[in-house]
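Sequence only, no structure available. Ideas?
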Amino acid sequence: MSEPANTERIPQEAAFLHDVVREVERVIVGQRALLDGLLIGLLADGHVLLEGVPGLAKSLAVQSLAGALGGTFRRIQFTPDLLPSDLLGTQVHDMRTGEWTVREGPVFANFVLADEINRAPAKVQSALLEAMQERQVSLAGETRALPEPFLVLATQNPVELEGTYPLPEAQVDRFMLKVVVGYPTKDEESEIIERMAHSGPRPVVRQVAEPSQVLAARRALDDVYVDEKVRRYVVDLVFATRAPADAGLPELAPLVMYGASPRASIALVQAARARAFLDGRAFVEPHDVKRVGFDVLRHRVLTTYEAEAEGLDSEHVIRAVFDAVPVP
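Reply:
I predicted one. Tokens follow.
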């Protein structure tokens, strides 16, 4: 596996991210997998879906990351009575002048936190997902581009189902990553309690970077080298989710309803590039693909009712696929 000529550029462009991580970790205890997922989505220009029970600092992590990077940040609390205009914006009539003006909605920001996205009805979810895909919004007959960088970080609560509208599988595919946020360790939770019990002022995230640095890092990401063997490895993994019997996994065939789409292959390569970039490397290793594989694939592999009856989910399928497909 050969390396590109400009290997020195990657560590230089990635240096500011270390400052961002240090700043966010002043507020967030642990949850490094969550922070890495957010940074990979940011670098790879892909939106991130965060799933976890309440109280795991999902919203705080997103807000802290946005504060450290600068740019505009908007938080939208999704509720069943939300309308698309509450998200995208609308026309406003001025009674004094008789003129109509356009008032842009909260989606016009660099970082958009869609909190509890599964609480909004389908038409609101569709409006947001269309903006995520097209990176533009039509208002009053005009097409308005969303700012750059533009990143949607959505959270959903998997526990409470009353009053929720689950995202359709085809729309979930618009998210590059689905990060499952787990509980902290005992030591981390002890530190959380100590911080919250402290009577002094709590740490506040300072801005240590600029949105322009994110855009420059994205351009540098194109220089991260992906060998043909790694690309073939990605294709083999994705095809194994579609036809597990052909990959030597006939026992998975009754468990898989739909495998990952070609969008998953693209996302795997881009996320692996971002993972290598975060590590300061100018080339992708197969291990990078494995490290991002679950976040990229877990919401793109749909299991059958038979799998559900046996208590098996998409992560079981993905784990078996990674174990079976030969690593180059």
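Confidence is low (pLDDT under 50) at residues 1-5.
Hope that gets you unstuck.
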